[in-house]
Amino acid sequence: MALDKAKIVEELSNATVLEIADLVKELENKWGVTAAAPVAVAAAGAPAGGAAAPAAEAKTAFDVILASVPADKKIAVIKAVREVKAGLGLAEAKALVEGAPKAVLEEAPKAEADAAKKKLEDAGAKVEIK
Fold it and tell me: Is 69 helix (H, G, I), strand (E, B) or coil?
């Protein structure tokens, strides 16, 4: 008996999430295995509730947001942005500064986010870390 992958894909495409979850449970029971990846995906898609608070406490990646720049500090802040965000050209840094509020760094480690915030604030910008 040959496996018809196209037919299986078509059937799964027409199934609901609950039907697929039930299928996964049945396969796990029949074969004695655990499908860790689908379970993790289902957990990630769960609606935010009481579990959101512990996740915020264990946060390891931060976004550095350039909130505002005084007009007289614009050039210094552009220079600081280019130092903080490696590989950024002058035109891109200028556009980022003029487009504030904008993210300068995304998903940065805590130490890097703090260093970037200090450098940008020393140049005269108002910065937020989220």
Answer: coil
Domain(s) of CATH 3.30.1390.10: residues in the chain: 60-129
The three-class DSSP label of residue 58 is coil
- Residue identified by tokens 């904008």 is 102
Q: Alpha helices, DSSP H only, in the chain?
A: 5-13, 17-31, 36-44, 52-57, 74-84, 90-98, 110-122
Q: Measured between alpha carbons, how far is 20 from 38 in angstroms, rounded to an integer?
A: 10
pLDDT in tens, 68-104: 888 898 899 889 888 888 777 888 888 888 887 888 8
Contact 125, 80 (CB under 8 A): yes
Q: Say yes or no: domain 60-129 is CATH 3.30.1390.10.
A: yes
Tokens 């860790």 sit on residue: 36
Asked if 117 and 64 count as a contact pair (C-beta separation under 8 A), the reply is yes
